[in-house]
Amino acid sequence: IILGNIRQTHIKNTAKNLLKQHPEDFVPKDFNKNKEGVDKYLILKSKMLRNKVAGYITRLLANKSVE
Asked: Is 0.90 topped by the overall pTM?
């Protein structure tokens, strides 16, 4: 059985809001560009939180499940 990652609600909400407000700054399958986009619009205390948001955005765009 392959289990997926469980992400916290605030990470999901932040990523979805960024995608709705600035869809042109995020690219599917390009994690590094998405990290730059997250840095451009958010002030985060840690790299780990930034990477989690950027990774979730990358995953959403790759799966085309953006609402």
From this structure: no
Instruction: Please report which residue ranges of the chain form alpha helices under DSSP H.
Output: 9-21, 31-41, 47-63
Q: Which two tokens stand for residue 8?
A: 């916290």
**For the chain, what is the mean pLDDT?**
90
CA distance 57 to 32: 11
d(CA 54, CA 32): 8
The model's pLDDT over 35-61, given as tens digits with 9 standing for 90+, comes to 999 999 999 899 999 999 999 999 999
- 47-63 and 31-41 helices cross at what angle (nearest 10)? 120
